[in-house]
Write a structure and sequence with these properties.
This protein is α+β, with helices and mostly antiparallel strands. Helix content is about 25%, strand content about 20%. Strands 2-1-3-4 form a four-stranded mixed β-sheet, covered by helices on one side. Helix 1 links the parallel strand 1 and strand 2. It is globular and about 35 Å long. It starts with 5 loop residues before the first strand and ends with a helix. About 25% of the residues are buried.
């Protein structure tokens, strides 16, 4: 496993939280054991993406600084796998 750290920031602002961000905050429970040392997850009070409709819809997460609109646990896991070089 590479020494890569993938940083995930989950928006827990009101719109994101209600639209599924509350589930995203449980992402750590879904991270495979082999990735545990390579993924950092944190919540943020608001990422501000909901204010610009061009950014997409809530809930939002950042995967290594890249916004993911309508984020889901499977989608974020897929992006983590990509970042860690697993397909």
């Amino acid at each position: 496993m590479p020494d890569t750290i993938v940083k995930i920031v989950v928006c827990s602002g009101t719109a994101c939280y209600v639209m599924g961000g509350s589930e995203l905050l449980l992402l750590d429970d879904h991270i495979p054991a082999k990735w545990k040392g390579n993924v950092e997850i944190e919540g943020a009070p608001c990422l501000g993406y909901c204010k610009d409709k061009k950014q997409g819809k809530a809930p939002f997460a950042l995967v290594d600084g890249v916004p993911v609109p309508q984020a889901t646990i499977p989608e974020v896991l897929r992006l983590i796998a990509e970042k860690l070089g697993e397909r």
